[in-house]
Write a structure and sequence with these properties.
Blueprint: H1 2-18, H2 24-43, E1 45-46, E2 54-55, E3 63-66, H3 68-73, E4 89-92, E5 101-104, E6 112-116, E7 119-120, E8 141-148, H4 152-155, E9 162-168, E10 179-187, E11 192-203, E12 206-217, E13 221-222, E14 225-226, E15 232-245, E16 248-262, E17 274-296, E18 302-327, E19 330-356, E20 359-383, E21 391-415, E22 420-446, E23 452-458, E24 461-476, E25 482-493, H5 497-501, E26 503-506, E27 509-512, E28 520-532, E29 536-555, E30 570-590, E31 596-609, E32 614-615, E33 623-635, E34 640-651, E35 654-658, E36 661-665, E37 668-679, E38 685-692, E39 712-720
Parallel strand pairs: 6-9, 27-30
Antiparallel strand pairs: 1-2, 3-8, 4-5, 6-7, 8-9, 10-11, 10-39, 11-12, 12-15, 13-14, 15-16, 16-17, 17-18, 18-19, 19-20, 20-21, 21-22, 22-23, 22-24, 24-25, 25-28, 26-27, 28-29, 29-30, 30-31, 31-32, 31-33, 33-34, 34-37, 35-36, 37-38, 38-39
Length: 721
């Protein structure tokens, strides 16, 4: 295997070096193509940062975009892999290989808002700090927009860390009536396959798309061998139908996604008392219908009117089995089966005003309601040193919760001079959370003696909250080829229904909800610089965040919130933690060579304050980066393009403190190479190869509990017609 890796490096390094050594016209095309890509990227029109169209260059916020070309070339097992090299973005797996999640600037996935075509993907049944993940058809995605930092003003709760908007393909850009795309990927790290395909087009005033993806991945292969329970499979399908009538545009989207995954757990490195452990999510499914309406008014007062609404359903099946042997003559077996559904409806209306040529005002309102139903059965089988005292405990819960949010927002963008632009946004929330039904029955059946049963009925209750947040930013372009920016924003995350009312049993722990929780809040300050002279491209930011009321947990110790429960396995949610975060993000490219050297990096320091300690051991590596050289070559004589990338991903060592325990993570660096060949008269055929972890490093990233794959090859082939 070592010789094979060396052979791969030896073969592909000369190939990479040889690409530009063709003829002068080809070399000139390389430079022009690279520069045109950058210019195109800077001119890319985004909608997420300000709910209106603005180029990346002009945005006062830290923005990153993954375009359709990059998405077509990505060969990862999740669409999230396209975000891995964005400064400040981290990928978390929460021990579930099939449900990767997004972190931004050290903030947990629960503080990162996920949108699909601007519509929220909420989730009230996730564990502490985690989210549902990105439950979207990979083939349907045309572009991903990432806005780092809090954007609660425009998009509501959950956006302390940032917003990630997955924008789907709507039709044919070149007005073709019929297009089709098919792609197949083989992943050597799992011996898995992914197949995806779509048909789409524009017929007169109609545009349409049908797409789907199926992925079946085996157990991950690492340097230590295959990891059990890291296999997963998912399937998805989606559709779009749009119609334009003069100045009116109507649209409807349909989405389906389902994943089956398990939790990786290493018994050898876990607690010696745990003899058996399994956690499976045999079903996590999302179904949605979305409706969209846009009216290009173009009057003297109003520019555009936008309305969209959706219905969304999430279903989850959770299965957890654990066997604990505290002493040789005692066994405690716990089996938990939980089924829950979340039905969500949302409605957004927005008006873009034209009050003055230098003023762009946006006003809008949002309504959202989430209804959660949960049924949970937990069975504890206790075998004691005295068999006659053995018993079985069963706990059955049935719950219904609801949370409704009404919000109004406004943002004004004002060109003060030709070089200075200022914007300010405000948002007012009214949130109502309701415990509609809470019913639990505990039954104890001893080996000898009579059965006992206790029933608890939670009294219905309603909790109200309102909040006001503000954000503002300014840009200055009075220096040649340079944009300076500064911003302030308030972040806001309201507790989920599980945080408020749930009782969650998993990993031999029980977590109780707390209806008295306060929302998590933050104040965030940022300055940044963008520079582009067609030789150097630089995008940088310095950021600082001061957050409070972060939700954590503490032992019950007989608290009434926990119904008097005691012991180290019973905890409840509280507002206790604070976090101060500061850092520097940098993205830089030099465009004047055939080989384009580039660097993306994030330096972050995050101090956590709890009721018992303060620590910088937050789990975020102080420095993480990707650096390498990339090359684009056009060979018109054979109708072929080559895009290659040789790069190193790296992160420093770090530690994470949780209570009295501190977990250490070693630093790591991997060498990787990717090559994509696009050929045909319209470059309609594409073959890709990724050589990952070329030096076969054994490592685990700080945010992923599953060890990374050993050296592996990913091969893809696609067809577009």
């Amino acid at each position: 295997m070592k010789l094979f890796r060396q052979a791969c490096v030896s073969c592909f390094m000369p190939l990479l070096a040889a690409i530009p050594i063709t003829e002068v016209s080809a070399q000139e095309t390389v430079n022009s193509k690279a520069k045109n890509k950058v210019a195109s990227a800077l001119d890319t029109i985004i909608v997420t940062s300000e709910r209106s169209e603005k180029s990346i260059w002009e945005s006062p916020m830290p923005v990153a975009v993954v375009n359709s070309d990059e998405i077509k070339k990505q060969n990862g097992d999740s669409i999230i892999e396209t975000l891995r090299d964005i400064p400040g973005v981290e990928i978390s797996d929460n021990s579930l290989a099939g449900r990767k999640q997004i972190m931004i600037r050290g903030e947990e996935p629960s503080r990162v808002l996920i949108l699909v075509d601007g519509q929220e993907l909420t989730y009230h049944r996730s564990g502490h700090g985690s989210s549902a993940g990105v439950l979207i058809d990979m083939e349907s995605v045309e572009r991903i927009e990432v806005v780092k930092g809090p954007n609660s003003v425009l998009y509501g709760s959950q956006a302390i860390g940032g917003v990630v908007n997955f924008i789907t393909r709507k039709g044919s850009e070149d007005q073709k009536k019929f297009n089709a795309h098919f792609k197949s990927i083989y992943n050597g790290a799992t011996d898995g396959f992914t197949e995806q395909g779509s048909i789409y087009g524009t017929v007169d005033n109609f545009d349409y798309r049908l797409s789907g993806t199926y992925s079946d991945q085996g157990d991950r292969k690492t340097k230590e061998g295959r990891l059990k329970n890291t296999d997963f499979d998912n399937n998805s399908a989606s559709a779009w139908l749009g119609y334009r009538l003069d100045q009116h545009k109507f649209g409807m989207s349909l989405e389906h996604y389902k994943v089956d995954t398990s939790t990786y757990y290493n018994l050898a490195s876990g607690s010696p008392e745990i003899k058996e452990f399994s956690l499976k999510i045999p079903k996590l499914a999302r179904d949605k219908i979305g409706l969209f309406y846009d009216y290009d008014v173009d009057s003297n007062l109003i520019d555009k009117i936008h309305v969209d609404g959706y219905y969304q359903r999430l279903e989850r099946q959770f299965r957890n089995n654990i066997l604990i042997v505290p002493i040789a003559t005692m066994k405690i077996g716990t089996n938990t089966h939980t089924d829950d559904t979340q039905n969500s409806v949302g409605l957004t209306s927005q008006i873009n005003w034209k009050l003055h040529p230098d003023i762009n005002l946006i006003t809008g309102a949002q309504y959202q309601r989430d209804d959660v139903k949960q049924t949970s059965l937990t069975q504890n089988t206790i075998n004691t040193p005295i068999p006659s005292r053995d018993y079985v405990e069963r706990s059955l819960q049935n719950n219904k919760w609801q949370q409704s949010t009404i919000a109004v927002f406004a943002q004004n963008d004002w060109s003060l001079t030709k070089d200075i632009n200022w914007n300010i946004g405000i948002r007012q929330y009214w949130i109502e959370s309701e415990l509609k039904k809470g019913h639990s029955t505990q039954t104890k059946t001893p080996v000898s003696g009579s059965q006992t049963s206790t029933t608890t009925v939670d009294s219905p209750r309603t909790d109200h909250h309102h909040n006001f947040v503000v954000a503002t930013g300014m840009t200055y372009q009075g220096i040649e080829n340079t944009l300076l920016r500064a911003s302030f924003a308030q972040g806001y995350v309201y507790p989920t229904l599980a945080h408020l009312y749930g009782i969650t049993a998993a990993h031999s722990q029980v977590l109780y909800g707390n209806p008295d929780l306060k929302p998590e809040k933050s104040n965030n300050y940022e300055i940044g610089l963008r520079f582009n002279n067609n030789r150097w491209l630089i995008d940088s930011a310095i950021y600082y965040s001061d957050a409070k009321n972060y939700i954590t947990d503490q032992y019950c110790n007989g608290s009434a919130i926990c119904n008097g429960a005691v012991g180290s396995t019973n905890q409840y949610y509280i507002n206790a933690d604070k976090a101060r975060t500061y850092g520097v993000e940098l993205s830089i490219e030099y465009l004047d060579w055939d080989f384009v050297p580039y660097l993306t990096a994030n330096y972050i320091r995050r101090q956590l304050h709890t009721s018992s300690y303060q620590t910088f051991d937050s789990g975020s590596p102080a420095l993480s980066s990707t650096f390498g050289v990339k090359n684009s070559t056009i060979w018109d004589a054979i109708n072929t393009d080559f895009d290659s990338n040789l790069f190193i991903r790296a992160a420093t060592d770090t530690a994470k403190r949780s209570g009295d325990d501190t977990y250490h993570y070693s630093g790591w660096a991997t060498l990787n190479f990717s090559l994509t060949a696009s050929f045909g008269r319209e470059r309609q055929y594409q073959i890709g190869i990724d050589l990952n972890n070329l030096l076969n490093k054994n490592y685990t990233t700080a945010r992923e509990t599953i060890p990374a794959a050993k050296f592996n090859t990913v091969i893809s082939a696609s067809l577009l017609f």
